[in-house]
Amino acid sequence: TVLLLNRSEVQSEFLSIAEKLSSSEQPQHTTLVMLLEHLYQANFGTHCDLDSLHHLLKSKTLEELSEIYASAAEAQEVAATTSDPILARERLQSVLRDIASTASFPAITGEAQPRKLHTIPIPTARCYTYSWDQDNFGKCRESPSSC
């Protein structure tokens, strides 16, 4: 999220919140754990033991999580370019099972387990603020080289 702010036109309470948002960021490790949990639950539902997966992911190093996430992201990109959605899903699930096996994730069972789906919060987007005190957008339209 990008906020362009003229401080003289914005309430101080809003500026305070914008400053907090732009200075806070979840650790990358936490973000990768959440994204991988979401990916596996979205693809396997209750066939995946999410509690065990969560604990295992938390024990991985940032480097290990980054490698796992890169492989999973690549698999999703390939699936997104496949014209047959059924084939894309089957291939994606196959690659995710291979990743899970290599990373020693809990087994993904063939039958749904008596577990409920988990609510997994998506990481908050990073917020960037930029303050200016002059409206120079008119100049940019007239002469882009002056911006």
UniProtKB/TrEMBL annotation:
The keyword Glycoprotein does not apply. GO terms for molecular function: 1-phosphatidylinositol-3-kinase regulator activity; kinase activity. Keywords: Cell membrane, Cytoplasm, Kinase, Membrane, Nucleus, Transferase. GO terms for cellular component: cytoplasm; nucleus; phosphatidylinositol 3-kinase complex, class IB; plasma membrane. GO terms for biological process: G protein-coupled receptor signaling pathway. Its main location: membrane. The keyword ATP-binding does not apply. InterPro entries: PIK3R5/6. It is a peripheral membrane protein. It is found in: Cell membrane; Cytoplasm; Nucleus. It comes from the Eukaryota. It holds the Pfam family PI3K_1B_p101. This is Phosphoinositide 3-kinase regulatory subunit 5. It comes from Semnornis frantzii.
